[in-house]
Design a protein that fits this description.
Elements: H1 7-12, E1 19-20, H2 21-28, H3 32-40, E2 47-48, E3 54-56, H4 58-72, H5 77-111
Antiparallel strand pairs: 1-3, 2-3
Length: 116
Amino acid sequence: MAADTPLSDRLDDDDYPAYTMGRAAEMLGTTPGFLRAIGEARLITPLRSEGGHRRYSRYQLRIAARARELVDRGTPIEAACRIIILEEQLEEAQRINAEYRRAAKEASESAAPRSS
Protein backbone atom coordinates (compact mmCIF):
# COMPACT_ATOMS: atom_id res chain seq x y z
CA MET A 1 0.00 0.00 0.00
CA ALA A 2 1.36 3.39 -0.92
CA ALA A 3 2.78 5.70 1.74
CA ASP A 4 0.44 8.47 0.56
CA THR A 5 -2.62 6.40 1.57
CA PRO A 6 -4.24 7.93 4.67
CA LEU A 7 -3.40 6.20 7.95
CA SER A 8 -7.07 5.49 8.70
CA ASP A 9 -7.38 3.56 5.43
CA ARG A 10 -4.26 1.51 6.19
CA LEU A 11 -5.47 0.63 9.69
CA ASP A 12 -8.82 -0.54 8.32
CA ASP A 13 -7.06 -2.73 5.74
CA ASP A 14 -6.98 -6.41 6.83
CA ASP A 15 -3.85 -6.96 4.73
CA TYR A 16 -1.85 -3.97 5.98
CA PRO A 17 1.23 -5.22 7.90
CA ALA A 18 0.62 -3.18 11.04
CA TYR A 19 1.99 -5.48 13.76
CA THR A 20 5.56 -6.24 14.72
CA MET A 21 6.53 -9.79 15.59
CA GLY A 22 6.66 -8.96 19.29
CA ARG A 23 3.24 -7.30 19.28
CA ALA A 24 1.73 -10.12 17.18
CA ALA A 25 3.10 -12.76 19.56
CA GLU A 26 1.78 -10.81 22.53
CA MET A 27 -1.69 -10.48 20.98
CA LEU A 28 -1.79 -14.21 20.22
CA GLY A 29 -0.39 -15.24 23.59
CA THR A 30 2.44 -17.10 21.93
CA THR A 31 6.15 -16.67 21.24
CA PRO A 32 8.01 -15.14 18.31
CA GLY A 33 9.36 -18.65 17.72
CA PHE A 34 5.84 -19.90 17.03
CA LEU A 35 5.36 -17.16 14.43
CA ARG A 36 8.70 -18.03 12.83
CA ALA A 37 7.70 -21.72 12.76
CA ILE A 38 4.40 -21.10 10.97
CA GLY A 39 6.28 -18.82 8.58
CA GLU A 40 8.79 -21.59 7.87
CA ALA A 41 5.85 -23.96 7.26
CA ARG A 42 4.64 -21.36 4.70
CA LEU A 43 1.32 -20.84 6.43
CA ILE A 44 1.89 -17.09 6.50
CA THR A 45 4.55 -14.91 4.95
CA PRO A 46 5.00 -11.70 6.89
CA LEU A 47 6.08 -8.61 5.06
CA ARG A 48 9.38 -7.04 6.00
CA SER A 49 9.93 -3.48 7.18
CA GLU A 50 12.70 -1.38 5.62
CA GLY A 51 14.91 -2.59 8.46
CA GLY A 52 14.09 -6.26 7.67
CA HIS A 53 11.76 -6.85 10.62
CA ARG A 54 8.71 -9.08 10.19
CA ARG A 55 5.36 -7.28 10.06
CA TYR A 56 1.98 -9.03 10.30
CA SER A 57 -1.49 -8.09 9.10
CA ARG A 58 -4.76 -8.72 10.93
CA TYR A 59 -5.58 -11.41 8.36
CA GLN A 60 -2.28 -13.17 9.12
CA LEU A 61 -2.95 -12.91 12.85
CA ARG A 62 -6.31 -14.65 12.41
CA ILE A 63 -4.57 -17.49 10.57
CA ALA A 64 -1.87 -17.67 13.25
CA ALA A 65 -4.57 -17.75 15.95
CA ARG A 66 -6.21 -20.71 14.20
CA ALA A 67 -2.84 -22.49 14.08
CA ARG A 68 -2.28 -21.84 17.76
CA GLU A 69 -5.74 -23.20 18.53
CA LEU A 70 -4.91 -26.46 16.73
CA VAL A 71 -1.45 -26.73 18.31
CA ASP A 72 -2.92 -26.11 21.76
CA ARG A 73 -5.21 -29.10 21.14
CA GLY A 74 -2.17 -31.28 20.47
CA THR A 75 -1.88 -31.09 16.69
CA PRO A 76 1.76 -30.95 15.50
CA ILE A 77 2.56 -27.53 14.03
CA GLU A 78 3.25 -28.89 10.52
CA ALA A 79 -0.10 -30.72 10.53
CA ALA A 80 -1.90 -27.65 11.87
CA CYS A 81 -0.47 -25.54 9.05
CA ARG A 82 -1.51 -28.11 6.46
CA ILE A 83 -5.03 -28.33 7.91
CA ILE A 84 -5.43 -24.55 7.70
CA ILE A 85 -4.12 -24.44 4.13
CA LEU A 86 -6.59 -27.18 3.14
CA GLU A 87 -9.44 -25.38 4.93
CA GLU A 88 -8.69 -22.22 2.97
CA GLN A 89 -8.48 -24.14 -0.33
CA LEU A 90 -11.82 -25.81 0.41
CA GLU A 91 -13.44 -22.47 1.26
CA GLU A 92 -12.17 -20.95 -2.00
CA ALA A 93 -13.37 -23.96 -4.03
CA GLN A 94 -16.81 -23.71 -2.42
CA ARG A 95 -16.96 -19.99 -3.20
CA ILE A 96 -16.06 -20.60 -6.86
CA ASN A 97 -18.57 -23.47 -7.07
CA ALA A 98 -21.33 -21.21 -5.70
CA GLU A 99 -20.46 -18.57 -8.31
CA TYR A 100 -20.69 -21.16 -11.11
CA ARG A 101 -24.04 -22.41 -9.80
CA ARG A 102 -25.38 -18.85 -9.60
CA ALA A 103 -24.18 -18.09 -13.15
CA ALA A 104 -25.66 -21.35 -14.48
CA LYS A 105 -28.99 -20.62 -12.81
CA GLU A 106 -29.07 -17.09 -14.23
CA ALA A 107 -28.20 -18.42 -17.69
CA SER A 108 -30.93 -21.08 -17.57
CA GLU A 109 -33.49 -18.56 -16.35
CA SER A 110 -32.67 -16.09 -19.11
CA ALA A 111 -32.80 -18.83 -21.74
CA ALA A 112 -36.16 -20.21 -20.58
CA PRO A 113 -39.16 -19.16 -22.67
CA ARG A 114 -41.30 -16.55 -20.99
CA SER A 115 -45.01 -17.10 -20.63
CA SER A 116 -47.34 -14.23 -21.46
